[in-house]
Amino acid sequence: MKAAQKSVFPFQTAVSLARACLVLLGLSLLPGVVSAQPMDTLDKLRKTKVLLVGVRDKSLPFSTLTAEGASGYSVEVCNKVAEQLRKELKLPELKNQYVTVTAANRMAKLKDGSVDIECGNTVNTKVRQAEVDFSYTFFVAGERILVRQDSGVQDLSGLAGKSLGVVKGSTAETIFNQLKNQVKNLKLEFFTTGPEAFAALEAGKIPAMAQPDILLESMRAQSGNPNRYMLTADTFSVEPMAVMVRKGDPAFRALVDKTVAALFASGEITGIYNKWFLTNTLKVPMSLMLKDCITRPSREPGVALGVGYSL
Predict the structure, then answer these.
(1) What is d(CA 291, CA 139) in angstroms, rounded to the nearest whole number?
(2) Is 124 in contact with 287 (CB distance < 8 Å)?
(3) How many CA atoms lie within 13 A of 215 on its CB side?
(4) Are residues 175 and 124 part of one domain?
(5) How many C-alpha atoms does 285 have within 13 Å on its Cβ side?
(6) Are 244 and 134 in a shared domain?
(7) How far is CA 189 from the centre of its chain?
(8) pLDDT tier at 39 (50, 70, 90 boundaries)?
(9) What is the model's pLDDT at position 67?
(10) Ramachandran category for residue 307: left, alpha or beta (phi over 0 → left; psi -120 to 50 → alpha)
């Protein structure tokens, strides 16, 4: 088991998160153009008494929809945010309403008010920071490739003339769209969700798929034949995951950060982590990078590794 864990997350003890500050530039309004006012989420919640929670389905261990509502590591973090909202807003009647989002539409749904908070496995990137805000990092992953053992693929170069499954709107799309010119005749096959891509991998329709390593390992571990699949050695990025909130709403983000920081300071986050990442099928100890983020809460964006491209 120890050897398997090392192969899944080889970068954890070798890479530290880049510490870079994103400079926000003020843009002057053009004459005659009226800007939309940022939505005040706290004021909205006082009126509606409903927290619209965006959830990625079948994206365990982070989130999935169930008959009872939703569950997962990220969902539990957001449930703690809801508890804090009930206390601070004095709204014991505040309810969670779960709304399904995908990688492709999650930011649009957040910005148009369809959801108030997104609780899945969204990676904090510089590009996304231009449109949305993020809480403190609550998980750190790395982009990897999962292949069928019988595919003959050992690394990215082995995908020459082959297809690579990626989720539309994901960091994998960003990374491998930029890398595909380095691999002759590499074709990207797009899917709505990770499980859809994995089903294609299982059926032999594609030889490989790319996603954050923890999601790949979770799907591999839960499959009927885990030994049929292998994570390749290369890690293409460091990807800090966080709760996503609307941009220009500092009061709401501050409350989310306060909740996450309290989970870190109390050690409660460890129990939530162990519940979802140390199970009968999935055994992934907390990484050194995540421990560092818990000790020193951070909103640093993700970085690409050794390929010269940003996220």
Answers:
(1) 9
(2) no
(3) 34
(4) no
(5) 11
(6) yes
(7) 20
(8) confident
(9) 86
(10) alpha
- What's the whole-number mean pLDDT along residues 188-200? 96
Which residue range is the domain that position 175 belongs to? 143-236
12 inside domain? no
Closest CA to 151 of 161, 141, 143, 142: 161
pTM of the model: 0.86
The DSSP secondary-structure symbol of 227 reads G
Q: Is the pLDDT of residue 235 over 80?
A: yes
Q: Is 179 helix (H, G, I), strand (E, B) or coil?
A: helix
- For the segment 242-250, the average pLDDT, to the nearest whole number, is 97
Compute the distance between CA of residue 269 and CA of residue 181 in angstroms, rounded to an integer. Answer: 41
Residues 200 and 41: their CA atoms lie apart, in Å, by 40
254 plus 117 within the same structural domain: yes
Q: Which residues fall within 8 angstroms of residue 8, CB to CB, at 6 or more apart? A: 213, 214, 217, 231, 284
| Structural domain includes residue 306 | no
pLDDT digits (tens, 9 = 90+) for 105-130: 999 999 999 999 999 999 999 999 99
d(C-alpha 211, C-alpha 166), whole Å: 7
**Peptide bond preceding 61 in cis form (omega within 30 of 0):** yes
At 126, list the tokens.
């510089």
254 shares its domain with 182: no
Angle between helices 73-88 and 268-277 (to 10 degrees): 150
Q: How many domains does the chain have?
A: 2
- Best CA proximity match to 140, nearest among 35, 12, 271, 295: 12
Output the six-digit token pair for 129.
Answer: 């920071």
Tell me the CATH number at 126: 3.40.190.10
Q: Do both 248 and 266 map to the same domain? A: yes
Between 41-48 and 250-266, two packed helices, what is the crossing angle to 10 degrees?
90
**Separation of CA 180 from chain center:** 23
